[in-house]
From TrEMBL:
Lineage of the organism: Eukaryota, Viridiplantae, Streptophyta, Embryophyta, Tracheophyta
Alphabetically ordered keywords of this record: Carbohydrate metabolism, Cellulose degradation, Glycosidase, Hydrolase, Polysaccharide degradation
InterPro entries: 6-hairpin_glycosidase_sf, 6hp_glycosidase-like_sf, Glyco_hydro_9
Region (Disordered): 1-25
Protein name: cellulase
This enzyme's EC code(s): 3.2.1.4
Pfam name, any one: Glyco_hydro_9
Swiss-Prot/TrEMBL catalytic activity: Endohydrolysis of (1->4)-beta-D-glucosidic linkages in cellulose, lichenin and cereal beta-D-glucans
Amino acid sequence: MARRWSRDEGEGWPVDDRSGKLPQSQRVKWRQDSSLRDGFQSHVDLVGGYYSGGDNLKSSFEMAYSITMLSWSVLEFGSYMELELQYAKDAIRWGTDFLLKATNSFGYVYIQVGNQNHSGQNCWQRPEDLDYPRQLYNVSKQFPGSDVTAEIASALAASSMVFKHIDPAYAAKLLERSEKIFEFSDKNRGSYIRVGPWVCPSGCSAEYEDELIWAAAWLYNATKLEKYRNYIFQNMSKLEAYFSNGSFSEFGWDNKHAGINVLISKLNMTDTESSHLFLSNADKLVCSLLPNSGTSSASFLQGGLLFKQGGSSLEHATALSFLLLVYGRTLGQARRQVYCGETIVNPEMLTEFARSQVDYILGNNPLGMSFMVGYGNKYPQRIRHKGSSLPSKSIHPKRIDCKEGLSYYNSSDPNQNLLIGAVVGGPDINGVYDDSRKSVHSEPKMYINAPLVGVLAYLKSAH
């Protein structure tokens, strides 16, 4: 029998890697204030936000996608979160406060703080000890980055709906900024991949049309203004070629295709002949993923994990499980089923698929281990995360410099501190997990964890 998720056995929230002046509600108690001068060398306040993973970088793209997914989790599954709902809202606000700062300079949007020169074996240091100048990267009219800026617009629009009734003034500020950033993204088109390898690792694509339509869909969701609906249908032809090549099943921080189809199908915008594309592609997503659909084209590891290549294989399992749960609810409300050849797929089958992915992540797999730190009897001990691997300030008050920290990086000892609830990158193509700080598969990323929030909340209520 697969193990079921229980809130008492782990927090299950995104990597609580807050940067800046930490609040009293901070649940990772071994962390302290850090990076309190981010942006000051350029006379801009970029303190706060989240480190995107274990290397103390702050990526606006990855952060914005994570905030979009956290917001969608609250909007869709918030009623199942119980006492955790306020923590989710606090986590969203911590990110949106930073995104407001990153978009507060006229003509510039800041997209990264820090660079790879201080990552891995070049520098292994607690965020609390950072005292070197943290390089800033931005996009502008001259050097556009519609993909990252449109994702920021999505995050601000989605989060405005979370705060609409509990803090109307803040929600209005988020929505106003979202509209401005979307206009900036659309008028100054281009991919941030051109900024350089410091902000766009090898996995980035040069495509940005999906982020623009994704942002327009979230703005339509938040405002119900026809101009955003019209924008979607006027620009949807740019995505059709990608859909025909199979991108209808792709979704993550740098690819929004499957998310667009599910979101627009949910928004009841499929009442015209041209919009049937989104609904049919959401159905194709279902048929391509479910192993018992008869038309599946997905790859699975032994034990049933949905697998796509990359250092963060679990990103796909968490993100696509979230989409299937959302689409399952949409199907249920519309009393629809999906026909995959001769197989009829109902919402319950989508729920069970998502449950199978979570069960694998939490330990029902050939390795007999959980990929969530602190969950179960066997879980990752040497995650690629500087703050977790180095002794905390309360244990070792003296500053640890870059080179001194390398002894901890190279050590085979377990990490000094548990980052409870963090899900790591996951197994490789052979189903093997390298429990080593030197492995990209051991790094917990916010964008892996963010979609899992809503999935866990719903499955906890459904079993």
